[in-house]
Amino acid sequence: MSEEVLDELNLQQYNTSDEGRRRLIPAVRNCRKAVLSGSVLSTSHWEVVASAMTSNPSHLRELSLSENKSLRDADIKLLSSAMMHPNCRLETLRLRHCSLSEISCDSLASALRSNPSHLRVLDLSGNQLKDPGVKQLCGALQDPLCELETLRWLHSSQKPKPASLLKGQQVEQKPPAEKVLSERKWWRTMKLAKLHLSSRDGLSWSCGTRYRPEEPPTNKLFSWEERALNLSSVCLSLVALKSNHSHLRVLDLSFNKLHDSGVKRLCSGLESPNCKLERLRLIDCSLSKISCGSLASALRSNPSHLRELDLGGNQLQDSGVKLLSDLVENPHYGLETLTDLVHFLAQKVRRRRRGRRAGALARLRRRGSRTALPGIFLSNANSLWNKMDELKLLMRIKDFSTSCVLCFTETWFRKETPDSALLLEGFQLFLLGGFQLFLAVSGERAGGGVCFCISSDWCTDVTVISQHCSPAVEYLFINCRPFYSPREFASFILASVYISPDADVREAQHTLADCIQQVERTYPDALVIVLGDFNQSNLSYELPRYKQFIKCPTRAENTLDHCYTTVKDAYRAVPRAALGLSDHVMVHLIPTYRQKLKLTKPSVSTTKRWTSEAVEELRTCLDTTDWDMFKGATHDLDEYTDTGTSYIHFCEERILPTRTRKLQQQFTANDSASVWRPEADYRLQASGFRGVAAPMDLTPSKAVPSSSPPPLTISPPPHHLPPVPPSSPPSFTISEQDVRRQFARLNPRKAPGPDGVSPSTLRHCAEELTPVFTDIFNSSLESCQVPACLKTSTIVPVPKKPRITGLNDYRPVALTSVVMKSLERLILPHLKSITTPLLDPLQFAYRANRSVDDAVNLALHSILQHLDSPGTYARILFVDFSSAFNTILPALLQDKLSQLSVPASLCRWITHFLTDRRQYVRLGKTVSDSVSISTGSPQGCVLSPLLFSLYTNCCTSSHQSVKLIKFADDTTLIGLISNGDETAYRREVARLVSWCGHNNLQLNAQKTVEMIVDFRKVTAPLPPLALMDSPITIADSFRFLGTTITRDLKWEPTISSLIKKAQQRMFFLRQLRKLKLPPRMLAQFYTAIIESILTSSITVWFAGATARDRLRLQRVVRAAEKVMGCRLPSIQDLYISRTRRRAGRRLRSIRTKTSRYMNSFFPLPLAIGC
């Protein structure tokens, strides 16, 4: 191992198993501080620690063994013997919560008496020590060889013995412990928080009592009543602070009920000129302002030494606080810090806060139209036409003119009223369906009518989505997409409602609730705000999720105007003066909603800094490591690999510096953990076998800094794997040059896998790590086994779509080992060279010189060539599999690989790679227990796509009129129908269903769709297609491998989508131009970001595009030319160059009868000169 001495070894910092942590115990020899807290260690491990303490030289200075329940008396004796060794230089020993016994205390006391004794700090907090143990430690403190400076003994709780048991007992002929401590010049700190001991000598010592050195020890009879631990009376003995030999610098009496009387006696020692106390802590000691006066008086008498005073947790009043704060401000006194008093004064200052009303209104005035929710004025106008003069006067008031929305009910519009007469400056007017709709229903009666006035500063993108006018209810729904809105809301849907007093309340509420629910389904990401004059109606009865925010009376003593929304604490209603002679007050709705992004606390991100010095130090450490020692000390490949990767991770953690940053969490609606809670009894099923999972337990099983999810248990399939025969020569070997080249290509920004080895380490230290990993890789191929640590994976559910409705909306992506990915990349070319000649020619995924464009072009060529004949049409079935990669059966895959001439040793290696894979799920901050999986290939592995292609290689069509085109798990079945005969097409669909059943693949009938391309003039309804007794949906368009195909084979939807994406990226090009980037960099940005979008699948759709669509594409290129100030290749030139590059050279032309076939990919290259 490396001879470099480390600063600290903390086993709890490494995310590995307990066995992996125990393997790192020998590293104690080469570290200055060892933290072995909470570890389950055996006697052999304690012998290793003792050996490290007595080694020559011994580097260990601090040892923490806290919370080790396995620490026995024999182990303490072994460690104490090591501390007595002349080579031991241990200075700090922590044994918190170790359940020490009397025998352990005897061993520690012997170590304290040793010569030389270097121990300065001994921490025994949390141990329930009995009287004999305390007596032995106190005896060790009397020894002149003991140089202990700090002894911590916190939270010990020992019940006092009855006085009758103590009567008649004599104290031994030795000075009490406080006398011993007063004579020790090295003793500095004694913490006394919550300390209650029954030992006689230990009692006085624990109270910090000191006698004068000249006082001789005396024999005295002590009873419990005389020496009970009551610090308010024991503080009388603190006159030892006046001693000429007082070395006490820190005194901590926190959490003891001293009261004012105890502090008064304590202050008598502080007043002495001989007192050298520098820090005094009296936290939560039941002090009052009287204690402040005593302390202030003592500090004025002796102002030179005390620097820090902590009085937190005491009920101090203003007068007492002022006495002590004056001492801090006076430079004559040495007091520098009054801990917690500063917070106390700050709370006093903040006690008088502004009210909610003033705060919300002030925030609204400050932000104007950039509030989280729109500011609204709601009024029952009682004839808006007569109130226009008053409204124009109100526009001079800032609160009214800067409001986002004005909502009016009972507008009483008349037919002769022009729209221009109702306009307000800076606002857009939206009426309920115009005058004709209102008059057609309500006639000439004076009543009803609703309208919105939307501020142009807040929103200009307003659309009327629904309106209704009947004697029961009138409403107007508009959709607003403002310039500024919280990211949790895509838009705001405002609804103005008027329900007349004589209307049928039940009918009105049903009609309004139905409309609101329809709007919610149509706009799921929008926030619906319903407001208006409801009279006696109440929307909460029909829609309990909606909350009503207007609580003040709006007409006499009744609240008739309402405002509803689903967001909690959205608005605060303030009544304003009524408009004119209206009998309803005007209501100002002030937004009080706090957007979720501002409520989330910033997260702390810790990253490693790969400085040149750190990289050089890491390379030196790995270069001087004896890797043969690892191989010789382990028994098999699993242990060898696990030990090596753990050591690499250990070196990386200890050497590389870190940087901590606070990051604002980004809000997302995809709360993956919340979806799993209602699905706790969700069970995974697979066709072909009945695998039932255990119910999920959301209790975290282990703490991980980044996450922690529910356990996921999957039963292994009943297929029994063939036994692994004895090792045979591998089909190929991996050279060090290949491994070194692969490590150098790794992306350093990728995350490390479960083994903790980061790609940056492999890349920067490729020369040092290549030999050991080359040996591991070749050993794995030779033995046909994959190390378990390299097969372990972390499953992270990634949302497939913005809104999550169930578990099927997630894609389980596996975070695997970077070392394993490197090995897979080395095996992939060899496996491809064997299987590529035998692959199905209609499989286009992961093959040289094939792409999605080739798959789409071949599919369209087959369809258009067939449709060139009369009386023909085509049916296209876009098949969708459920978790396709997770259903691979390793035993069945091994048989298929053997049929493809893959060597037997490589087949066994792949089978072992896919079986017994340990994995756990990570959701947010929760990590599940790990389980063993023997089905499927994890999405995230390099070999998974190719293995799935080989798994489905035998799935082909047996009829020439049916084409089965595959791109990995995207499968498309094209039926070329002539004369209405669909027999071959339906037979192939049935064969596909049967093949999936025999190969454990599940068809998703809900996501499988069919599209019919038929250009016949006279057509009859075609019979529907069913898949596993489920009817298949017939779609008018489908996104096939990134290209939208419609039933009429028009390309306008695809081109419009590409133009929209390119125009969005034009904004960044203009911003770069403003920053005065050179033209060369602008051209690179255009080629990589904009041109790549415009030419996406251009060989598929450009020839069939209309002249108008081509002109739209060229406009984007011209706009980029104006921004950059240089010439760019046209869309036509780009298409010709891409077509020539892909088509190659044609030997003969293709005869076509229709223009749509002539303008497709295959016939066109001859026309453009390929």
From TrEMBL:
Residues 707-729 have a biased composition (Pro residues). InterPro entries: AlkB_hom8_N, DNA/RNA_pol_sf, Endo/exonu/phosph_ase_sf, Leu-rich_rpt, LRR_dom_sf, RT_dom. The keyword Cell membrane does not apply. Residues 697-733 are annotated as: Disordered. Residues 779-1045 form the Reverse transcriptase domain. The chain crosses the membrane at residues 1085-1105. It holds the Pfam family ALKBH8_N. It comes from the Eukaryota. Keywords: Membrane, Transmembrane, Transmembrane helix. The keyword rRNA processing does not apply. One of its GO terms (molecular function) is methyltransferase activity. This is Ribonuclease inhibitor. It comes from Takifugu flavidus.
